[in-house]
Amino acid sequence: MDPISDTAPSDFIRDIIADDFKTNRHEGRVATRFPPEPNGYIHIGHAKSVCLNFGIAAQYGGTCNLRMDDTDPAGESLEFVESIIQDIHWLGFDWQDRLFFASDYFEQLYAFAVELIRAGKAYVCSLDADEIREYRGSFTEPGRESPYRNRSVEENLDLFARMRAGEFADGEHVLRAKIDMASPFIVMRDPVIYRIKRAPHHRTGEAWVIYPMYDFAHCLSDALERITHSICTLEFENNRPLYDWFVDQLISWDHPRQIEFARLNVSYTVLSKRRLIELVENGHVSGWDDPRMPTVAGMRRRGYTPEAIRNFCAEIGVAKNDTVVDIALLEHCVRQDLNDRAPRTMGVLKPLKVVIDNYPEDRTETFTCPNHPQNPVLGSREVPFSRVLYIERDDFMEDPPKKYKRLGPGREVRLRNAYVIRYASHNRDAVGGEVTEVHCAIDPETRNAPPADGRKVEGVIHWLSAAHAAPAEVRLYDRLFSVPDPAAAGDDFVKFLNADSLEVLKGCFVEAGLTEAAPGARFQFERTGYFCLDEKDSRPERLVFNRIVALRDSWSKGQGKA
RNA sequence: UGGGGUGUCGUCAAGCGGUAAGACACAGGCCUUUGGAGCCUGCAUUCGGAGGUUCGAAUCCUCCCGCCCCAGCCA
Fold first, then answer.
1. Which of A247, A310, A325, A519 is most buried by a 10 A CB count?
2. Active-site annotation holder among A14, A151, A257, A273
3. Which residues contact A439 (CB under 8 A, 6 or more apart)?
């Protein structure tokens, strides 16, 4: 699929770029990048940024690099690098040979730092972390200059070289930019640009004991890659003066421009990396790819399509307002996409046995059922019918309300793609009183035809021949949290976890043909929802389905149910 | 509190001095062998508030108010 053909959105960033493009500001180039830190899996919020950066590049015939922002080995790993690569590819984007790592630039970055020292614009500071914080001042008071601020260039050069050589303990010294301790931009008060940190790096191993800070590494990495528009989220707006400062000091060529947009929030879930890590590490979910997770891996396993996610990202737009997008919009995009392409099938989640009294025990016939009622291109399949059927337990009521259009005493109902059946009797369990079996009679005239006498049969229910159906496990997923804004509870957000976010149904039945479906294949179980074969747990002999999203259901809504 | 941002329908979001797009949600109706899908209709006399400029303001000016971000050797 061509990502940019999904829709052609317009937003303030594209306006800026269109203008730069028109005025030939970067020699007519458009170069963006998506710069994740490989310390977690990417989620729907990252997907917004991925679509933005890759989408813009494609729109202008430019390039978008994938750059791992791996400047802090703590928490970063190859597992995350690999998952990020897989997830962005799956979303439908490609960076060809332009996969980069900030760690690729460590040597160059070190040289930039030396250059800054030589220019008298950086110094080695030997204050400890607490002291640096104290010296930084506050929102209302300016900071004070470090006593080490005026070390000589020679001493700074020597100390910095020895920092790199591993002569000092972690935290003993840092390299700082010499800017302005009184700046209202706190980030400009002599920011730390290198720290000593003995931690093995997933790519550079033990080669370095000093690592550059984000503010230093990011803008210069952008410049080294000749990025024209460095798009990031709003919280970096305060850092922009520093971004520009480093570039102004060290870069002689075309300067990249940082542009900030509002990060995505989605109702009934959390998107901060810290919180997602907590969900995974504390076992609240089964892993990063738990189908309830808002991660790309989770959504993929859940059965969401890349197209649906891209459409969602196009729908929500790009602006600078803090927003919380209704998760219903995401669900809408998933339904909209799946409605067009998911083949129909019948699945009985909570079976109730129905016996057709006037149908011979030894008889089986086959119905040809369209795989998509509006799209014949998807073909059809044969579905067997016999005397004993399963229907959905919810499709029978002993004492139904008047607007109920399904089966009940004295009622008749259409079996989807098959006969009209009329209620005859039903049995109940002697102990629990639960309905165990319903007896019905078919109207043989109604085999794929309306009743001959012109009477109207309103209800249509799905069914399966008991002798032919395949058993399956079905996992019903619901929103991860029970409140729209779980993050509002701060660290207590886990107390709003939705206890019913996963319901495992064991005794389900599906059409036998699904036994041959490919892992990950998506279907609509008619009248119920969209489901996919779980890629990890499903086996032909033990089918496991994930509910991707339920169908819109105006009946249960009117009944005041979920 | 100093600084940086931002306030348009329940939720996103267009609008860029000429008289409030669209989407989701919601509510009705039509249609229907998925209570699905589809279709139709309704849904901001008003743009955080108050003044002002103008023939005309969501758009320009002034003041006020709310919300978000910044005091990591995280990104």
1. A310
2. A273
3. A354, A355, A357, A423, A424, A425, A426, A427
